[in-house]
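Shall we go through a protein fold together, starting from nothing but its sequence? Please make up or recall a protein chain and show it to me in full. Go ahead whenever you are ready, and we will take it from there.
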Amino acid sequence: GSLVAAVLAHSGRLDKEHLGARVGRLSRRGEVCTMINKKYSEFLPSMQSAEELVAQVEGLANNIDLLKAGIENEVQRDLNVAVAEFTELKQQLERDTLVLSVLRKLQEFDTAIKECSSALLEKQYVTAAQQLDKARSSLRSLESRRGFELKILKALGTELTVQTQNIIYHLGEEWQKLVVWKLPPSKGSSSLEAVVLSELHLHTVPAQDEDTAVPPVAAVLQALAVLGELHSKLKDFGQLLLQYILKPLISHPSLQPVPEEQPDVFILRFRSQEFALDESSPMEVFDKIKLVFEVLHKHLLNVPVEQPGEGRVTLAELLGQLIWEELSDCLIHNCLVNSIPTNSSKLEQYKEVIESTEEFERALKKMQFLKEDTTALLKYACNVDSHFANKKCQDVIMAARSLMTSEIHNTVKITPDSSVALPELPDPGSGDHLKMLPASSLLHNGTVNLGRESRLSPFTLCLPTCRISSSVQQLVELAYHTLLEATASTDLCCVQLFDCVRNIFQLFYEVVPTYHRENLQKLPQLAAIHHNNCMYLAHHLLTLGHQFRYRGTGVLSNGAATFVDMVPGFRRLGMECFLAQMRVQKGEILERLSSARNFSNMDDEENYCAANKAIKQVLHQLRRLGMVWQDVLPVNVYCKAMGALLNTALAEIVTRIAALEDISAEDADRLYSLCRVMVEEGPQVFTPLLEEDKNKKYQEEVPVYVHKWMTFKELMIILQANLQEIVDQWADGKGPLAEEFSAAEVKSLIRALFQNTERRAAALAKIK
């Protein structure tokens, strides 16, 4: 019952709420209706006015359509007709304007040609040239009009050419009257005799007794400038000026300009002095050239002209542009180059040349012959250090090459105590290690004390006695003098001279073996001298840079200036040449011994004679070599070379005899006699010195230089010994025979010398 009562109560509340909401909605609807009515009453008049406006607009649109249709049908047609008429009138106007312009240009051309001819008759050359230039401009304008061609233009061009050549001809005649060259019959020659006969006449002042005066030079030059012919006239004039005046004055010291001024003409002549130096100083050359330009400037080159595209310039400026480059090159190569000092001590005196060059350029600039920024001569003169170094290097290289291509066989003797004509070098500076040694270490005789008893000889590091080419000695002297010159020069010059000295030795390395190749291959003495030359150069190269290390404060003092790197190359060059000659001599020795018929069957007289002849030929060859190398090679090199060649002969003989399979008693005796000849006469080929009594020492030391000497003597013992003696010489492998021959070689000789018996078998058994 409680649940039912709750439901009913809730339903009642819902009905009340629904009813209230509905009443609220109805009241709001009434308010909205009232607002709508109010808005409608306000909107209605506006809508009516808008409808009226729409009606008016529609009426206007209809009127516009009617107007547009009228314009398209009537006005546009009239407008097209007007445009067509305007276009036709415009084209007619353009044609008329073009015809009028052409007629005006033709009139201008005709007027200019007539005025040109009239002015030319009156010798008013500038006016004639200007009128001709106007005619050319008019014709050019006519020819540039495309689509408008006249047959008359070709005739006008011909007329213009005729008039141009006519005025150029007249101007050329006037120029020849103004500037007259009187040249020798042999034109093109710039010899002294031809130049002396040359004259230049300048008729720049009209003659007083002539009614028709020569036109002023300015008028002729200006007319040529207008026509564009002035450049070619000046170019021809400049070339003649160079060929017959300027260059001869530079090349011939005896030639002097002689100016002569007369009332109506200026004449430039030349005369030759009888007594003149071989070369002119730059100051003298500059004075002569300046004199020529001064008189030319006074009578010709100071004329101003209006040059098209350049404005107002003087004739001197134009001429300078044409000939200065060639003239300056001639002055440099034929004058300034010769004045460059060959000795650094004369560089101070070269300041006078620099000042003279500067004054010369200043004078030419004042005459407007040169531009203000032109300093070619002065730059060259001021760069004297570089030019001095270049010239010095060139002279040094040429002198060195001359020495290298001279004869090698002209020799001088070099001894450890010989004094070479080298420049006197200063004492080492404070940095030299010798000055740090105690006083007791430097002995009065020049030797250095290394301890209590050991002393080095003063000749310890000296080159041994030998002969070298006199040209090589002079080459070394040249290198020393050049380096001495470098120490007194600027750093740049010093570096160039140092490089030049290196180039000298590099040139020797490349040139001498090539230039003298044939003689070095054929002549043993020249090969020996070349060997000595290379060793002599290497000896000096070891200390050449160090000797100048303490000379001055230049780049040579920093220790980088050295020639030590070239020493191995020169030593190798000398050794390779001499070893190649040694190989040739060894080949000849072996070739001669090959005719000995292997030293077999010596009981045959023919074989014995052949072997004996081969031995004698070998000894003769060795004696000849000993003579040509005598007093040339150092003693130790001589002995080693002769020992090697004699050793080659002995080794070949030993090899041939040891290879024999059968040696009879007579063969052994004859082989022994041949070997005895080698032993007796072989040492006699050792004659390194001219004094015979001094050669005995080296002849006794033959075993030192001939390695197969003892082997050869043991072979002689075997050829004459019996079996027991051979066994005794062997001494169980400890005797002298065992030191020179192997067991197999001794057994082979025993089998060849002795018959097969029990005694031989017993002897062979002991050789082991």
